Amino acid sequence: MTPFSSASGTPVLASFLGSLVEFVEALTIVLAVGSVRGWRPALAGAAAALGVLVAIVALVGGPIAAMPVAPLRLGIGVLTLLFGLRWLRKAILRYGGYLPLHDEARIYAKATERIRSAGAAPAQAGALRDPIAFMTSFKIVLLEGTEVVFIVIAVASNTGAWGAAAIGAIGALLVVAAAGLALHRPLARVPENTLKFGVGVLLAALGSFWVGEGLGIGWPGDDAAIPALIAAFLTYGLGLGAVLRALRSRSRQPTVSAAAKPAPVKRAPIVGLLGIALELFIDDRALAFGVIALLGLLWFARTRAAVPMPWAVFIGGLAIVLAYSTLRAAVAFRGRTRA
To answer: How far apart are CA 210 and CA 233, in angstroms?
Structure first.
């Protein structure tokens, strides 16, 4: 079986949508910094972060592209699956009313207030004479850009379409930058919650497909299974969100507002670069450990005996793990609101 080609548009779409969400979030903070403390240090910090990200891609892109396809596809596929399920889980909880909807206007207002509280900007501040503005822009662009880099590498390394993945990310950057320059305000009208739901579905489907390829699972129809996986994750995500909404309605709990604290999740501890990497892929330990356990059991079973329709076992297991994780978060929220 050959990887689906860039002509299908899937690499461009996955890279563009995922990058668009991250760049919108980064733009919100950069605009807040620029409006309060000046545009030169804010833009300088953003440009410096983009330079670091380009250097990272240049350093790791070549070695990754030269790696054997099978183990690379499996490794990147697992990370993409965890990354996509992380986004999809949050989107389902938002749709079900257990997490506040993402509000760029509110984030902009809070960021502006926080930056103002840091003190007045130096008179005639240059790019490097206001370290608060420079580092705030640098850190947010580097953080969100790291996720963009992963999306590009994940899509490109599994499809071979490095150019298409790069075009998608660059296109998202240009669209967001042009909108920011034209509007000078957060892109509050961008349907970011819908985009995050869609990106979560897309990455979860692609990650599942690549993991299945790495494990030797024969997908029905080969590449034609990708649209079916996307439709399955979309339908299941919407259905699970509807179940959460019904549960919340029966318990007479109001939808979580943007000012409320979200339902608690167990995160991996932040310890250096390893902690940052874990934070990127693990939103809920039960979800991450469940996925890893499922993959281990499936691999062990396939090496010991023939598993009928392993692709169905795989997707069914993912559905159970995702449902458990989201329902667990909803129950935790209900317990917290009753306390």
So the answer is: 15
